[in-house]
Amino acid sequence: MTDSMAADETPYALVVRFTVRPGSEAEFDELITRVAAGVRELEPETLVFACHHVEGASLQRVFYELYRDKAAFDAHSQQPHVRDFTAARAPLLESTVVDYMTLTDGKAPVADPTS
Predict the structure, then answer these.
(1) For the structural domain made of 8-101, what CATH number should be given?
(2) Beta strands per DSSP E along the chain
(3) Domain ranges in the chain?
(4) Sign of the dihedral defined by the CA atoms of residues 82, 85, 90, 95, in that order
(5) How does pLDDT run across 4-22, given as a tens digit for each residue?
(6) Sheet (strand 12-20) strand order
(7) Residue 89 contacts residue 83 (beta carbons within 8 Å)
(8) pTM for the whole structure
(9) % helix / strand / coil in the chain, to the nearest 5?
(10) Residue 112 carries which DSSP code?
């Protein structure tokens, strides 16, 4: 983070590792499709919302999420499509591990120069 970047402007990220219950993979992946569509359509402050299958681990799904700042993450969490995903996923999962992260250094997204 540069000295000129205020703390409330710091990009905010998390990585989530889901372990899906055997036999629930297709249903969970359908939930991913729906929540990702809502994020793309309705959340301009969500910079990255990437959902991955893990090679060699068919029950693992990993999300990488990057938000303009913590406020954008908080707004994301309140969206109806996210709340629906959170409620519907519970019976399909064996476990969830979330790592919340704050950018220390690196290449962060910049504001759209056309805005």
Answers:
(1) 3.30.70.100
(2) 12-20, 46-54, 57-67, 93-102
(3) 8-101
(4) negative
(5) 445 567 889 999 999 999 9
(6) 46-54, 57-67, 12-20, 93-102
(7) no
(8) 0.83
(9) 35, 35, 30
(10) -
